[in-house]
Amino acid sequence: MATVTVYLEDNSLESARVLDFISWIKTIAPRLDVKLVNVSRMEDPEEFENIALPAFEINGTLITGSLDREQLQRILRSLAEQNLN
Prior knowledge:
- By secondary structure, the chain is an alpha+beta fold.
- It has one domain: Glutaredoxin (3-Layer(aba) Sandwich).
- The protein has helices at about 15-30, 70-80; strands at about 5-10, 35-40, 55-60, 60-65.
- It has a four-stranded mixed beta sheet with strand order 2-1-3-4, with helices on one face.
- Helix 1 (about 15-30) links the parallel strand 1 and strand 2 (about 35-40).
């Protein structure tokens, strides 16, 4: 099963949009393992200082906010299709 970790921060419009998108992905692939990490509430958020958020870690590969929305949607849809059952 694929694992997607989403790194978000408080009070971010983009983070809210990503949460909506993740909810949609979960409806078509409920077995997809999605973990949410709020960087704003981490004990040591410094490791994310130079990373554009939201960021996605997909099967161990970090994809930052520099990836455009269509590319991210294709990646997540592909993962979802692989995890439909």
